Amino acid sequence: MSSSPAGPKDRARAEALRRKIILHERKYYVENDPQISDEEFDRLVRELRDLEARFPELVTPESPTQRVGGKPVEGFPTVVHRTPMMSIDNGYTEDEIREFDQRVRKILPEKPIAYTAELKIDGLSMSILYRDGKFVRGVTRGDGVRGDDVSANVKTIRSLPLTIEREGEVEVRGEVYLPFRSFRAINREREEAGQALFANPRNAAAGSVRLLDPREVASRNLSIFLYYLFIDGREEPSQWGALKELRELGFPTNPNSRFCKTIEEALAYFREWNAKRDSLEYDADGIVIKVDDAGERQALGTTAKSPRWAISYKFPARQATTRINDILIQVGRTGALTPVAVLEPVKLSGTTISRSTLHNEEELRRKDFRIGDYVLIERSGDVIPQVVSVMKDRRPRGAKRFAWPKRCPVCGSKVFKPEGEVISRCENTSCPDRIRESILHFAARRAMDINGLGEAIVDQLLAAKLVRSIPDLYGLSLESLTALERMGVKSAGNLLDEIEASKSRGLARLLFALGIRHVGERLAQTLAARFKTLEALEAAGREDLLRAEDVGPKVAESILFFFAQPENKDVLHRLRQAGVKDRIAAETAGPKPLAGQIFVITGTLPGLSRDEARDLLEGQGAEVGSSVTRKTTGVIVGESPGSKLDRARELGVRTIEAKEFLELVGRKS
Prior knowledge:
It contains 24 helices and 23 strands. The protein is α+β, with helices and mostly antiparallel strands.
């Protein structure tokens, strides 16, 4: 911290950084049109944070560095909504929606009623207030009259602007939700930590918003769509116009909303999205149909609980009834024992479901699943089907409670359940099922990216005893591989090339690939950046680890435990002997011929993972974008390209084939 006050240059730089960061947050999170790399964005944030640390008087409440507060809050005060947040009546058939339209027309005869139709996001309703362009607070719907002030948590939502270009008071309302990708990541972490899993993204979003520590909320990666706008207490003249105004102010709105001139157009919108709902990256459980004109809405009024000018048309429930034929225990790569229900096959959302996880021993006992039970299963979007409940009235006579094993069903070793956790674990690090899952995780795309090392090959390698642990992969030969069933010389050679290439994936990927409990992909990158070498991380003490970002006591203990095990020490030693790089390569100085250029990758590039291609481009100074815009320099086209190629042709953006790309980055094909 500086003892002297900030000078004019410091103030000007801080303001310039804030404007730049806010601009790029909007480009990335709202417009899906990133203009700089993640590394450059992080560099801007670090510079602003360092400047504010030296001159605390430069910190403003709306600064991007203030999205996450420093300390947990002690509770949530209650706030009364200026205008009640009413619930919307539901409809389940086209007849009910047409009856709604008839009721509207009865009150407003001889008027051409237009509607705005929007996807009904399954999340948590929120009211957010701005005053003179600055974020003031975020309040949950609560009982509709009053809700909880969760401002510190709402500020962590990166797609939500902290400042807007509008004077006076602006209130926006919308739905906080959890994208499927974030939902899966949270449940993976909870399962690893021995915590109860969230049943669905909505529960996870609601639970996240009510956490007392904003830092933990920030790690959940919540998102939001806004759909109501009040300026100085007045509603916008039309709902469709309000959505347009929200976008112009920098708020994220759902891009799939539609203006409908008639109720029939709204019904067509419903049919379209009922068929396409599985393509969404978030959970939508129906559509909301609203009378578009604000004057007409006022004339229609409300009942005691709901507006007469809106109705929700719910998608059909994605549920089915089936029977548990058996309960098996699977052993994961961390030794976790997971109960799995073997189901009477049943069709659900176009997929035949024959198995479903029952999560853990505690969940199995709490819901009292038994062999022979009839159960209700549910599937939402691309979320894995879940067994929701047991139909105990249909339980067969004599059905016995499931006896949890005291020994591993695979290797017979003792089962251990750490105090305070709900997951039992096999203690044997050489358990065959643990080795299998560990190798598959090690070879995964986001880990060491060994293309071609899938389940079938791993099973053959284990059966032939060619591989007993991860380092054995680096001792495989062409002769040993071609002896496997359906493994030709070319396939074996390709796999050996992939294994050899994996040696250079870097420290962050290696840390993630090792499968250390609680160390996910993002934390692995953080640890690699901080400690630089695997040796330094191994030597780190508890206090050294706790000083690293996102490392708490439980994570620190897990890392220390991993490196203390003789078996793991042996694995690391053998990986080093095999030539696996376990340090961050020093940055190479030199010219950056592609500096200032933006490239987008589509399809699969032969011999290269997507991340390797990104590294090659960024090594030459280029930026790698996620979507094609008029600012894109070129689109690199691999095998089986997607819609980005069509977009490039539409905009007249240069397309680059794989061979030309390799020449561009100075790499021999």
